[in-house]
Specification:
CATH superfamily of the largest domain: Glutaredoxin
CATH class of the largest domain: Alpha Beta
Structural class: alpha+beta
Distance between the termini: 115 Å
Strand order of the largest sheet: 2-1-3-4
């Protein structure tokens, strides 16, 4: 119940000049002010949830964006580490030495084995990307079966089997798997064809 209402209060609640009002009882004025106040309050309450929901959706979207970015970074790191451990890709080089030995014996062909470090180092990349790739024609002409083997340690079984004291190592085997020659240095690009020819008892440069 309204005990006293000033004209200024009525104007401030109704937002309209009093000259446009017809004579009203005090109770009617109180009801109008109360209704107007409830409408204003309802408008504020109706807007509040919408703003809150909007902020909630935005916050949820930001979390998913951050989560997706994190997943992308993790996948990229795993891929880089995997690529580094696998070493440089060499077309035409097989990784099955046992199968290569059987093939060599059947074809009476020599085998050139590239024992790489795992993970590969700077010299591994140089031999693979420069010495080997730039001598693709000479390697094909040599008739060697090409094999690459990643060696994680000189104490591993494959290292002990071929008496590897360091990697990378280029090793030339005959068709029976017996060692003919090896190179443990940073093999220059121009040295590879000559080394193969000399080791296989062939003439040429």
């Amino acid at each position: 119940m309204c005990n006293w209402i000033s004209f200024n209060e009525i104007e401030s609640h109704t937002k309209s000049p009093l000259m446009h009002f017809v004579p009203l009882s005090r109770k009617r004025l109180c009801d109008m002010i109360r209704i107007h106040g409830n409408l204003q309050f309802g408008k504020i309450m109706s807007e509040q949830p919408e703003s809150s929901v909007s902020k909630h959706h935005k916050s949820k979207k930001d979390k998913w964006v951050k989560f997706g970015f994190l997943i992308l970074v993790v996948v990229l790191v795993i891929y880089i580490q995997y690529s580094q451990r696998q070493g440089p890709k060499l077309d035409g080089w097989r990784e099955d030495l046992t199968g290569a030995l059987k093939h060599a014996k059947r074809e009476n062909a020599p085998i050139l084995v590239f024992f790489m470090s795992r993970p590969p180092g700077e010299i591994d990349h140089f031999i693979a990307n420069t010495t080997i790739k730039n001598n693709a024609a000479a390697l094909k002409e040599s008739g060697c079966i090409l094999v690459r083997i990643a060696v994680s340690s000189t104490s591993s079984d494959i290292a002990k089997q071929y008496d590897l004291t360091s990697t990378p190592t280029l090793m030339l085997l005959d068709s029976t798997g017996k060692e003919i020659s090896r190179r443990t240095d940073r093999v220059p690009e121009t040295d590879l064809p000559q080394w193969l020819n000399e080791s296989l008892g062939r003439t040429g440069t």
